[in-house]
Design brief:
The complex is a heterodimer.
Chain A: H1 2-13, H2 18-27, H3 30-56
Chain B: H1 2-20, H2 34-67, H3 83-112, E1 119-126, E2 129-134, E3 139-143, H4 149-153, E4 170-173, E5 178-184, E6 189-193, E7 198-202, E8 208-212, E9 218-224, E10 237-242, H5 244-264, H6 271-290, H7 308-312, H8 314-323, H9 339-351, H10 363-370
Parallel strand pairs in B: 1-5, 4-10
Antiparallel strand pairs in B: 1-2, 2-3, 5-8, 6-7, 6-9, 9-10
Helix pairs in contact in B: 2-3, 6-9, 9-10
The chains are: A mainly alpha, B alpha+beta.
Chain lengths: ~55, ~375
């Protein structure tokens, strides 16, 4: 699980080690990555809204 | 020798760049409001960030090109990934962008804060003039281009404020917060005064807000910044900022004049008085399309001189001026001109350039029969 979160974070950031990418594609299944990705996108949106509210307040 | 050349070139470049901060015509103006100063300093900060990035990136590139050139036996290194380098070149732009966003957001916040204004002015764009209304003060007027037709046609020397001068400027009190409510009667215009750092679209059916607090009395000029038709270049903005006491006196005087004008609606006007007033109204409002001699520019703008259909039907003539003609360029003047001005300009059109109906259209007729609703 922690590995999946780390890989999704790396994808958000845009930089990933080739070795880890290979590992994810060979051993993992797609569904957990998609679910974690959607959840973390929601977290990102909430964070942006919080920062904007803080700045406007 | 080469070194000295480099230093000289560098010196010139630096002198040129540091001159940018104040150079008229090359850089945006510092302006005369706190917001315009903030915007200018933001602009300079970001400019210098761009300069540093440019120097570092191109410096590294040109250094590498020169130092590791093939004729010196340089060998390309072939590698596919380098996570540390990739992280560095992602994090640095992120920090730069966040560093720019923080002061920019602070400035945006103050730009949008239109609360607690001392004065509200409605700014309405019209093809092709600006109308200003001091809300709650019963003072309103249109501000028309004052540059002469001879200058525009190239028959006279251009004045200092060519196409940036108006018959009546927007007078504002220095030091007070003025809220601007911008809208339009016809197409999209944009009210732009660089020294006030205001460039706001005036959109028909919408009211946009902005505000200014001018620190220094003076005259500030601008233009319409949204292509709005044939005379887009001929509807300048002139703002005259005066000391608050002078502004109060000016406003009181304008209110008095508006009251006098309202009294004028009820009295009987002589043909001569209407003609004289009408000629002035015609010159500022009508002449840009129908021409000073009433010859028009057919087919878009019909001639008024010798226009028999017009002269035979007085009511149609009045209706055209008051309500406009939908589907054509002829706007309705019922809210732009007051009854005296409408009566005077119609009288003028019916008696000038060889038109000789002898009609004196009374302001009271216009007010009672045409503007009653």
């Amino acid at each position: 699980m922690w590995q999946i979160i780390k890989s999704v974070l790396a994808a958000f950031f845009g930089v990933q080690k080739e070795a880890r990418r290979r590992e994810d594609f060979e051993k993992g299944r797609a569904a957990p990555f998609i679910i974690v990705g959607v959840l973390m996108a929601i977290v990102l949106v909430i964070l942006v809204v919080l920062v904007a509210t803080l700045a406007a307040g | 020798m080469r070194k000295r050349l480099l230093w000289t070139a560098g010196g010139f470049a630096f002198a040129g760049l540091s001159g940018l901060a104040s150079a008229d015509g090359w850089n945006m103006p510092v302006g005369v409001t706190d917001v315009s100063r903030e915007i200018h300093s933001l602009h300079m900060i970001i400019f210098w960030i761009c300069v540093v990035i440019g120097v570092v990136v191109f410096g590294a590139m040109f250094y590498s090109l020169f130092r590791y050139r093939r004729s010196q036996g340089a060998e390309a290194s072939n590698f596919h990934e380098h996570t540390t380098v990739e992280v560095i070149w992602t994090v640095i732009p992120l920090l730069i962008l966040v560093g720019m966003a923080v002061p920019a957001t602070a400035t945006l916040k103050s730009m949008y804060d239109t609360t607690e204004a001392d004065l509200d002015v409605m700014v309405t764009g019209q093809q092709w003039r600006w109308r200003y209304e001091y809300l709650g003060e019963d003072v309103a007027f249109t501000s028309n281009l004052a540059t002469s037709r001879e200058q525009i046609a190239g028959e006279a020397a251009k004045g200092e404020d060519y196409l940036l001068e108006v018959d009546e400027p927007l007078v504002l009190p220095a030091g007070r917060k003025v809220r601007l409510l911008l809208t339009s009667d016809d197409v999209i215009h944009s009210w732009w005064v660089p020294d006030l750092a205001v460039k706001q679209d005036a959109v028909p059916g919408f009211v946009n807000e902005n505000w200014v607090r001018i620190n220094e009395p003076g005259i500030y000029r601008g233009q319409c910044a949204e292509l709005c038709g044939r005379d887009h270049a001929f509807m300048p903005v002139v703002v005259q900022a005066v000391e608050p006491e002078r502004f109060d006196a000016w406003l009181a005087q304008r209110k008095e004049a508006a009251a006098q004008e309202a009294l004028g609606v009820d009295r009987d006007w002589s043909l001569e008085a209407l003609m004289e007033r009408g000629e002035r109204v015609y010159g500022t409002i009508c002449a840009s399309c129908h021409q000073p001699d009433g010859s028009g520019s057919p087919p878009a703008f019909p001639a008024l001189a010798g226009n028999q259909a017009l002269l035979d039907e007085r009511d149609r003539h009045i209706d055209t001026v008051v309500n406009g003609v939908s589907g054509t360029a002829m706007p309705a003047f019922r809210s732009t001109l007051n009854p005296v001005e409408i009566a005077a300009v119609i009288t003028y059109e019916r008696n000038a350039w060889g038109n000789d109906t002898g009609d004196a259209v009374q302001p009271s007729t216009i007010a009672d029969e045409w503007l009653a609703d």
